[in-house]
Amino acid sequence: MSETDNPLKLLITQYREAFAAWLLGRPVRHVRPLNVEFPAQGARGDLLFEVIDTQGNLIYLHIELQGPRTAEPMPLRQLDYLTRTVRRDIGVPQGEQTPHLHSVVIYVGDGAGRGDDGYYEVLDLDGATTLSWRYQALRLWEMDAETLFKLGSPAFLALIGQTRLRQPEVILPQAIASIRQVEDAAQKGRLLTALFTLLRDEEVTMMVEKLLDQSEDFLLDTPYLRKMRRIGLEQGLQQGREEGREKGREEGLRAAILDGIALRFNPLATDYRAVEDLLKNIPAYDTLRQLHKALFEVTDFAAFRGRLEQQLGVNE
Fold first, then answer.
1. pLDDT tens profile 290-307
2. What is the pLDDT of residues 27-44, one digit of tens each?
Protein backbone atom coordinates (compact mmCIF):
# COMPACT_ATOMS: atom_id res chain seq x y z
CA MET A 1 0.00 0.00 0.00
CA SER A 2 1.15 3.56 -0.62
CA GLU A 3 2.56 5.92 2.02
CA THR A 4 -0.95 7.32 2.56
CA ASP A 5 -2.16 4.04 4.10
CA ASN A 6 -1.45 4.78 7.76
CA PRO A 7 -2.36 8.51 7.80
CA LEU A 8 -5.64 7.72 6.08
CA LYS A 9 -6.31 4.77 8.39
CA LEU A 10 -5.66 7.01 11.39
CA LEU A 11 -7.99 9.72 10.06
CA ILE A 12 -10.84 7.27 9.47
CA THR A 13 -10.41 5.73 12.92
CA GLN A 14 -10.40 9.09 14.69
CA TYR A 15 -13.49 10.30 12.83
CA ARG A 16 -15.18 6.92 12.38
CA GLU A 17 -18.73 8.16 13.04
CA ALA A 18 -18.51 10.69 10.21
CA PHE A 19 -16.91 8.22 7.79
CA ALA A 20 -19.36 5.45 8.67
CA ALA A 21 -22.35 7.72 8.03
CA TRP A 22 -20.87 8.80 4.69
CA LEU A 23 -19.92 5.34 3.43
CA LEU A 24 -23.18 3.73 4.58
CA GLY A 25 -25.35 6.60 3.36
CA ARG A 26 -27.32 6.78 6.62
CA PRO A 27 -27.04 8.35 10.09
CA VAL A 28 -25.34 6.20 12.70
CA ARG A 29 -25.67 6.01 16.47
CA HIS A 30 -22.59 4.04 17.50
CA VAL A 31 -19.32 2.96 15.81
CA ARG A 32 -16.83 0.62 17.47
CA PRO A 33 -13.48 -0.53 16.00
CA LEU A 34 -13.00 -4.30 15.81
CA ASN A 35 -9.93 -6.49 15.60
CA VAL A 36 -8.74 -6.68 11.99
CA GLU A 37 -6.51 -9.71 12.60
CA PHE A 38 -7.95 -13.01 11.45
CA PRO A 39 -6.57 -16.17 13.06
CA ALA A 40 -5.93 -18.34 10.03
CA GLN A 41 -2.70 -17.62 8.13
CA GLY A 42 -2.19 -14.35 9.99
CA ALA A 43 -4.48 -12.44 7.62
CA ARG A 44 -5.04 -8.77 8.49
CA GLY A 45 -7.42 -6.29 6.92
CA ASP A 46 -7.20 -2.52 7.20
CA LEU A 47 -10.30 -1.42 9.15
CA LEU A 48 -13.39 -3.12 10.52
CA PHE A 49 -16.13 -1.39 12.52
CA GLU A 50 -19.27 -2.52 14.29
CA VAL A 51 -21.93 0.07 13.48
CA ILE A 52 -25.38 0.62 14.95
CA ASP A 53 -27.51 2.92 12.81
CA THR A 54 -30.34 5.11 14.10
CA GLN A 55 -32.84 2.34 13.28
CA GLY A 56 -31.00 -0.13 15.50
CA ASN A 57 -29.54 -2.20 12.64
CA LEU A 58 -26.22 -3.93 13.28
CA ILE A 59 -23.79 -3.38 10.41
CA TYR A 60 -20.23 -4.59 9.97
CA LEU A 61 -18.34 -1.96 7.98
CA HIS A 62 -15.13 -3.23 6.40
CA ILE A 63 -12.74 -0.74 4.76
CA GLU A 64 -9.63 -1.49 2.70
CA LEU A 65 -7.20 1.18 1.50
CA GLN A 66 -5.45 0.53 -1.78
CA GLY A 67 -2.97 2.36 -4.00
CA PRO A 68 -2.27 1.80 -7.70
CA ARG A 69 -0.39 -1.50 -7.21
CA THR A 70 -1.29 -4.69 -5.37
CA ALA A 71 0.36 -8.10 -5.26
CA GLU A 72 -2.99 -9.92 -5.34
CA PRO A 73 -6.01 -8.75 -7.36
CA MET A 74 -8.32 -6.74 -5.13
CA PRO A 75 -11.46 -8.81 -5.96
CA LEU A 76 -9.74 -11.94 -4.59
CA ARG A 77 -8.44 -10.12 -1.52
CA GLN A 78 -11.94 -8.82 -0.86
CA LEU A 79 -13.44 -12.30 -1.23
CA ASP A 80 -10.99 -13.50 1.40
CA TYR A 81 -11.66 -10.62 3.82
CA LEU A 82 -15.44 -10.87 3.45
CA THR A 83 -15.42 -14.62 3.97
CA ARG A 84 -13.28 -14.33 7.10
CA THR A 85 -15.53 -11.60 8.50
CA VAL A 86 -18.65 -13.71 7.94
CA ARG A 87 -17.06 -16.78 9.51
CA ARG A 88 -15.73 -14.94 12.55
CA ASP A 89 -18.33 -12.22 13.27
CA ILE A 90 -21.60 -13.11 11.52
CA GLY A 91 -21.88 -16.87 11.13
CA VAL A 92 -24.55 -18.73 9.15
CA PRO A 93 -27.18 -16.24 7.90
CA GLN A 94 -30.42 -16.39 9.90
CA GLY A 95 -32.81 -14.38 7.76
CA GLU A 96 -33.76 -10.89 8.92
CA GLN A 97 -31.84 -11.34 12.18
CA THR A 98 -28.52 -11.58 10.33
CA PRO A 99 -26.26 -8.54 10.75
CA HIS A 100 -25.51 -6.53 7.62
CA LEU A 101 -22.08 -6.42 6.00
CA HIS A 102 -20.88 -3.50 3.90
CA SER A 103 -17.39 -3.41 2.42
CA VAL A 104 -15.59 -0.46 0.84
CA VAL A 105 -12.28 -0.23 -1.00
CA ILE A 106 -10.93 3.32 -0.95
CA TYR A 107 -8.55 3.73 -3.86
CA VAL A 108 -5.88 6.46 -3.62
CA GLY A 109 -3.45 7.60 -6.28
CA ASP A 110 -4.08 8.30 -9.95
CA GLY A 111 -5.46 5.29 -11.77
CA ALA A 112 -5.91 3.14 -8.66
CA GLY A 113 -8.90 0.80 -8.99
CA ARG A 114 -9.70 1.84 -12.54
CA GLY A 115 -12.25 -0.60 -13.97
CA ASP A 116 -13.17 -2.16 -10.63
CA ASP A 117 -16.96 -2.03 -10.34
CA GLY A 118 -16.98 -4.03 -7.11
CA TYR A 119 -19.25 -6.86 -8.27
CA TYR A 120 -18.09 -10.38 -9.15
CA GLU A 121 -19.81 -13.74 -9.57
CA VAL A 122 -19.11 -17.34 -10.53
CA LEU A 123 -21.84 -19.16 -12.48
CA ASP A 124 -23.06 -22.73 -12.48
CA LEU A 125 -23.46 -24.73 -15.70
CA ASP A 126 -27.07 -23.58 -16.05
CA GLY A 127 -26.09 -19.92 -15.77
CA ALA A 128 -27.32 -19.53 -12.21
CA THR A 129 -25.06 -17.80 -9.72
CA THR A 130 -22.99 -20.17 -7.59
CA LEU A 131 -21.03 -17.46 -5.79
CA SER A 132 -21.19 -13.69 -5.87
CA TRP A 133 -19.59 -10.93 -3.82
CA ARG A 134 -19.70 -7.16 -3.91
CA TYR A 135 -18.11 -4.11 -2.38
CA GLN A 136 -18.13 -0.37 -2.89
CA ALA A 137 -15.19 0.85 -4.98
CA LEU A 138 -14.47 4.47 -4.03
CA ARG A 139 -11.79 6.20 -6.11
CA LEU A 140 -10.75 9.40 -4.33
CA TRP A 141 -8.75 10.56 -7.33
CA GLU A 142 -11.98 10.71 -9.36
CA MET A 143 -13.79 12.88 -6.79
CA ASP A 144 -13.97 16.64 -7.22
CA ALA A 145 -12.54 18.42 -4.20
CA GLU A 146 -15.65 20.58 -3.94
CA THR A 147 -17.65 17.46 -3.01
CA LEU A 148 -15.88 17.23 0.36
CA PHE A 149 -17.42 20.51 1.54
CA LYS A 150 -20.91 19.05 1.14
CA LEU A 151 -20.31 16.08 3.46
CA GLY A 152 -20.91 18.01 6.67
CA SER A 153 -17.70 17.36 8.62
CA PRO A 154 -14.26 19.05 8.54
CA ALA A 155 -12.72 15.56 8.78
CA PHE A 156 -13.37 15.01 5.08
CA LEU A 157 -11.44 18.14 4.13
CA ALA A 158 -8.23 16.33 5.13
CA LEU A 159 -8.77 14.16 2.02
CA ILE A 160 -8.54 17.13 -0.31
CA GLY A 161 -5.03 16.36 -1.53
CA GLN A 162 -6.19 12.95 -2.77
CA THR A 163 -9.06 14.37 -4.82
CA ARG A 164 -9.26 16.21 -8.14
CA LEU A 165 -8.18 19.80 -7.45
CA ARG A 166 -9.23 21.92 -10.40
CA GLN A 167 -8.71 25.28 -8.64
CA PRO A 168 -6.29 24.71 -5.73
CA GLU A 169 -5.76 28.43 -5.25
CA VAL A 170 -9.48 28.73 -4.41
CA ILE A 171 -10.22 25.39 -2.72
CA LEU A 172 -7.21 25.14 -0.38
CA PRO A 173 -7.84 28.46 1.46
CA GLN A 174 -11.48 27.46 1.91
CA ALA A 175 -10.51 24.06 3.33
CA ILE A 176 -8.00 25.48 5.80
CA ALA A 177 -10.42 28.21 6.85
CA SER A 178 -13.06 25.54 7.59
CA ILE A 179 -10.62 23.47 9.66
CA ARG A 180 -9.58 26.60 11.59
CA GLN A 181 -13.17 26.89 12.82
CA VAL A 182 -12.77 23.65 14.82
CA GLU A 183 -12.71 24.78 18.44
CA ASP A 184 -10.74 21.91 19.95
CA ALA A 185 -7.04 22.70 19.47
CA ALA A 186 -5.92 19.05 19.40
CA GLN A 187 -8.53 18.10 16.79
CA LYS A 188 -7.68 21.13 14.70
CA GLY A 189 -4.00 20.16 14.78
CA ARG A 190 -4.75 16.58 13.81
CA LEU A 191 -6.91 17.62 10.87
CA LEU A 192 -4.26 20.01 9.59
CA THR A 193 -1.65 17.29 10.06
CA ALA A 194 -3.79 14.77 8.16
CA LEU A 195 -4.44 17.24 5.34
CA PHE A 196 -0.72 17.94 5.07
CA THR A 197 0.43 14.31 5.14
CA LEU A 198 -2.15 13.24 2.54
CA LEU A 199 -1.01 15.80 -0.04
CA ARG A 200 0.51 14.18 -3.12
CA ASP A 201 1.69 17.17 -5.14
CA GLU A 202 4.70 19.32 -4.19
CA GLU A 203 3.24 22.48 -5.70
CA VAL A 204 0.05 22.02 -3.69
CA THR A 205 2.15 21.31 -0.59
CA MET A 206 3.96 24.63 -1.02
CA MET A 207 0.63 26.42 -1.38
CA VAL A 208 -0.59 24.91 1.91
CA GLU A 209 2.61 25.90 3.71
CA LYS A 210 2.14 29.52 2.65
CA LEU A 211 -1.44 29.50 3.95
CA LEU A 212 -0.47 28.50 7.49
CA ASP A 213 0.02 31.02 10.24
CA GLN A 214 2.83 30.81 12.79
CA SER A 215 1.10 28.59 15.34
CA GLU A 216 -0.06 26.17 12.63
CA ASP A 217 3.44 26.19 11.17
CA PHE A 218 4.62 24.83 14.53
CA LEU A 219 2.37 21.80 14.03
CA LEU A 220 3.07 21.16 10.37
CA ASP A 221 6.28 22.71 9.07
CA THR A 222 8.60 20.19 10.68
CA PRO A 223 11.19 17.68 9.49
CA TYR A 224 9.02 15.04 11.20
CA LEU A 225 5.99 15.60 9.01
CA ARG A 226 7.96 16.12 5.81
CA LYS A 227 9.69 12.78 6.28
CA MET A 228 6.47 11.11 7.37
CA ARG A 229 4.73 12.22 4.20
CA ARG A 230 7.56 10.88 2.00
CA ILE A 231 8.41 7.52 3.56
CA GLY A 232 6.05 7.07 6.51
CA LEU A 233 8.58 7.75 9.29
CA GLU A 234 9.14 10.79 11.42
CA GLN A 235 12.50 12.54 11.81
CA GLY A 236 11.92 15.03 14.59
CA LEU A 237 9.79 17.85 15.87
CA GLN A 238 10.72 21.52 16.19
CA GLN A 239 10.54 23.11 19.60
CA GLY A 240 7.83 25.71 20.16
CA ARG A 241 8.68 29.20 19.02
CA GLU A 242 7.12 31.27 21.77
CA GLU A 243 6.98 30.74 25.52
CA GLY A 244 3.29 31.65 25.63
CA ARG A 245 2.23 28.59 23.61
CA GLU A 246 2.97 25.87 26.17
CA LYS A 247 -0.48 24.28 26.02
CA GLY A 248 -0.60 24.31 22.23
CA ARG A 249 2.90 22.82 22.03
CA GLU A 250 1.97 19.93 24.32
CA GLU A 251 -1.24 19.17 22.40
CA GLY A 252 0.63 19.30 19.11
CA LEU A 253 3.35 17.01 20.45
CA ARG A 254 0.83 14.48 21.74
CA ALA A 255 -0.80 14.41 18.30
CA ALA A 256 2.62 13.98 16.67
CA ILE A 257 3.43 11.03 18.97
CA LEU A 258 0.11 9.35 18.16
CA ASP A 259 0.62 9.86 14.44
CA GLY A 260 4.13 8.41 14.74
CA ILE A 261 2.79 5.36 16.60
CA ALA A 262 0.28 4.69 13.82
CA LEU A 263 2.90 5.10 11.11
CA ARG A 264 5.65 3.00 12.71
CA PHE A 265 3.70 0.25 14.45
CA ASN A 266 0.13 0.25 13.07
CA PRO A 267 -1.31 -1.09 16.36
CA LEU A 268 -4.82 -2.38 16.90
CA ALA A 269 -7.35 0.39 17.47
CA THR A 270 -7.87 -0.67 21.09
CA ASP A 271 -4.14 -0.48 21.83
CA TYR A 272 -3.91 2.88 20.09
CA ARG A 273 -6.76 4.29 22.19
CA ALA A 274 -5.16 2.97 25.39
CA VAL A 275 -1.92 4.80 24.62
CA GLU A 276 -3.87 7.92 23.69
CA ASP A 277 -5.49 7.87 27.15
CA LEU A 278 -2.12 7.37 28.87
CA LEU A 279 -0.59 10.32 27.03
CA LYS A 280 -3.29 12.61 28.40
CA ASN A 281 -1.80 12.01 31.86
CA ILE A 282 1.59 13.39 30.87
CA PRO A 283 1.49 17.21 31.04
CA ALA A 284 5.25 17.93 30.93
CA TYR A 285 6.54 19.07 27.56
CA ASP A 286 10.06 17.69 28.17
CA THR A 287 8.64 14.25 29.01
CA LEU A 288 6.56 14.26 25.84
CA ARG A 289 9.68 15.14 23.85
CA GLN A 290 11.50 12.17 25.37
CA LEU A 291 8.64 9.88 24.37
CA HIS A 292 8.63 11.33 20.88
CA LYS A 293 12.34 10.54 20.60
CA ALA A 294 11.70 7.03 21.93
CA LEU A 295 9.60 6.28 18.83
CA PHE A 296 12.87 5.90 16.90
CA GLU A 297 14.80 4.10 19.59
CA VAL A 298 12.44 1.17 20.19
CA THR A 299 11.87 -1.75 17.85
CA ASP A 300 8.18 -2.43 18.41
CA PHE A 301 4.96 -1.08 19.89
CA ALA A 302 5.25 -3.08 23.11
CA ALA A 303 8.64 -1.53 23.83
CA PHE A 304 7.29 1.97 23.29
CA ARG A 305 4.32 1.33 25.55
CA GLY A 306 6.76 0.08 28.18
CA ARG A 307 8.63 3.40 27.99
CA LEU A 308 5.35 5.28 28.34
CA GLU A 309 4.24 3.27 31.35
CA GLN A 310 7.66 3.74 32.92
CA GLN A 311 7.23 7.51 32.63
CA LEU A 312 3.85 7.23 34.34
CA GLY A 313 5.14 4.89 37.02
CA VAL A 314 2.61 2.24 36.06
CA ASN A 315 5.05 -0.56 36.72
CA GLU A 316 6.39 0.84 39.98
1. 888 888 778 888 889 998
2. 999 999 887 766 655 566
Which candidate, 167, 153, 160, places its Cα nearest to that of 200?
160
- Residue 228, pLDDT score: 47
